[in-house]
């Protein structure tokens, strides 16, 4: 079943008072059976269509449902389509297809090409190039638990790989910096926790339901805290890793050093995460200072080398 055909049928029904199944079948070059299935799908999407038999009969959208499509401007419709289309890349489900169909039903025929062009001017693809293929299935399980207030049970690994079994009341799915999390009340810790989906295994939807408690949203914006902790170090990089370094600092912090290198003022926090970021650039990056950070990079590099000398 093609979404484009469903949208087109909705637009036709909005423009015409009534149209027969035979006319629709001939228009889209499909069978009558396919048209009847399409009409059922549109009804399931929440757009009420009724049929009348006899001479002059056919399908029509119930009159009291019809709305003035001028409620949404071209910019409004473009923004809605842009957001829903991007979200459908990372969260699948009939509800998104139905939402897209409903939004598209408000597009006037004479503005359809213009709105489609504007909606396609920005593409947001939040899915990773590669990664854990089980995450999508876990997302769908969590969505069901959220909708029905069902408990979730799973194994959760901490930073050191230690696993604990958790039973959790789910409250929110979170996509942060291309990583999926969900916020819930952990019945083991008796407190709210933010769980990273890549650390979850054996996720099971329980048959036990819960009454939602007063919800506390997770603290996701730590910009102020990070700013107070950050210092600036100097690194020398090869131009081949420039794109990666630009993820952390603006181009204004780059100073050319010869034909193929740059000196960069790099934001840094003295913890394993940031040291590992520097090591991710391999031999294309050298820490120039301050001396104690350079010395720690050397110590860590020697420890890595020692692993391969055994």
From TrEMBL:
Protein name: YafY family transcriptional regulator
Superkingdom of the organism of origin: Bacteria
Organism: Candidatus Enterococcus moelleringii
Any Pfam family: WYL
Gene3D superfamilies cross-referenced by the UniProt entry: Winged helix-like DNA-binding domain superfamily/Winged helix DNA-binding domain
Keyword Translocase set for record: no
InterPro entries: CBASS_pafABC_assoc_protein (IPR051534), DeoR_HTH (IPR001034), HTH_11 (IPR013196), PafC-like (IPR028349), WCX_dom (IPR057727), WH-like_DNA-bd_sf (IPR036388), WH_DNA-bd_sf (IPR036390), WYL_dom (IPR026881)
Domain HTH deoR-type per the UniProt entry, residue ranges: 2-57
PROSITE patterns, alphabetized: HTH_DEOR_2 (PS51000), WYL (PS52050)
Keyword Cytoplasm: no
């Amino acid at each position: 079943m093609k979404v484009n055909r469903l949208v087109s049928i909705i637009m036709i029904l909005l423009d015409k008072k009534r149209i027969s199944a035979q006319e629709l079948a001939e228009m889209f070059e499909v069978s009558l059976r396919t048209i009847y299935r399409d009409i059922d799908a549109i009804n399931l999407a929440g757009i009420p269509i009724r049929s009348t038999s006899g001479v002059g009969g056919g399908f029509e959208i119930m009159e009291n449902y019809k709305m003035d499509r001028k409620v949404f401007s071209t910019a409004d419709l473009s923004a809605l389509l842009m957001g829903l289309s991007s979200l459908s890349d990372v969260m699948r489900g009939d509800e998104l297809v139905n939402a897209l169909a409903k939004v598209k039903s408000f597009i006037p025929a004479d503005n359809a090409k213009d709105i489609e062009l504007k909606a396609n001017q920005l593409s947001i693809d939040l899915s990773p190039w590669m990664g854990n293929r089980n995450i999508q299935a876990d997302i769908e399980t969590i969505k069901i638990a959220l909708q029905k207030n069902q408990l979730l049970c799973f194994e959760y690994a901490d930073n050191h790989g230690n696993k604990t079994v958790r039973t959790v009341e789910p409250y929110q799915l979170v996509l942060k910096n291309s990583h999926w999390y969900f916020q819930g009340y952990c019945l083991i810790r008796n407190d709210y926790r933010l769980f990273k989906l890549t650390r979850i295994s054996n996720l099971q939807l329980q048959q036990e339901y819960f009454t939602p408690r007063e919800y506390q949203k997770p603290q996701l914006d730590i910009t102020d805290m990070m700013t107070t902790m950050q210092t600036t170090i100097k690194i020398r990089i090869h131009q081949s890793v420039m794109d990666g370094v630009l993820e952390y600092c603006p181009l204004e912090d780059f100073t050319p050093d010869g034909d193929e290198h740059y000196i960069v003022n790099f934001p840094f926090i003295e913890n394993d995460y940031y040291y590992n970021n520097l090591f991710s650039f391999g031999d294309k990056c050298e820490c120039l200072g301050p001396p104690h950070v350079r010395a720690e990079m050397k110590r860590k590099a020697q420890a890595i080398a020692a692993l391969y000398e055994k």
